[in-house]
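stage 2 :: seqdesign
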């Protein structure tokens, strides 16, 4: 599974970028939402990472969905800043329509820090699993679990320190998925797996694969 972040351009086209501002990961300046999609595609979104990726274009969600179709699962995080009070024609509906058009209904999870986005996702897409992204400052209590259920979300996304015993026990009892972000340390990966994470977001999938394999191998012996 690949996790990606989606916001809207000025002309309401879903684009894939993590930050609300362009400066860190492109050669542009200002807010993503202040630019038309055609202007965003003129920016270099690869050189910041490595010279070999110079000229990489900021992708539209549609492009990513078409590429991923029948290949790999996606966790689509809808950025909080893209969500408005008006549901019609908003980011959730636009994302839903693209998922349908690209025949990706069975290959995606929609997540967000925005309670509005999570609730609307269920209303638009009851056939697509959703995850409520807990604030990194939340305590990891049963309150977050109850909020997840109130929003009709399928599961929770959280930081490692929020995996408190009571919360994890409740999630396990009700078979609610728990995805943990972002874990790149090998020791922490092992701890998170042992605490019962359904999945882990990481920048080091090769290391995670090895750690998980070792744990499950030892568990079977």
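stage 2 :: out
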């Amino acid at each position: 599974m690949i996790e990606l972040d989606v916001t809207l351009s000025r002309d309401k086209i879903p684009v894939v970028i993590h930050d609300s501002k362009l400066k860190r990961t492109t050669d542009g300046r200002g807010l993503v939402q202040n630019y038309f999609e055609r202007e965003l595609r003129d920016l270099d979104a690869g050189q910041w990472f490595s010279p070999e990726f110079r000229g990489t274009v900021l992708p539209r969600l549609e492009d990513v969905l078409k590429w991923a179709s029948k290949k790999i699962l996606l966790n689509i995080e809808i950025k909080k800043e893209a969500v408005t009070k008006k549901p019609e024609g908003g980011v959730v509906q636009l994302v839903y329509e693209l998922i349908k058009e690209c025949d990706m209904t069975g290959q995606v999870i929609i997540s967000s820090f925005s309670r509005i986005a999570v609730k609307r996702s269920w209303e638009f897409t009851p056939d697509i699993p959703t995850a409520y992204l807990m604030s990194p400052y939340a305590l990891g209590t049963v309150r977050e679990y109850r909020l997840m259920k109130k929003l009709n979300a399928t599961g929770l996304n959280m930081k490692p320190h929020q995996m408190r015993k009571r919360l994890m026990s409740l999630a396990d009892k009700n078979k609610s998925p728990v995805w943990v972000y972002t874990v790149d340390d090998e020791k922490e990966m092992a701890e998170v797996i042992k605490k019962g994470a359904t999945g882990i977001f990481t920048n080091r999938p090769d290391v995670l694969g090895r750690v998980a394999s070792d744990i499950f191998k030892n568990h079977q012996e």
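stage 3 :: structure notes
- The two ends are 28 Å apart (CA to CA).
- The beta strands are 2-8, 14-16, 74-78, 108-112, 130-133, 155-158, 178-180, 199-200.
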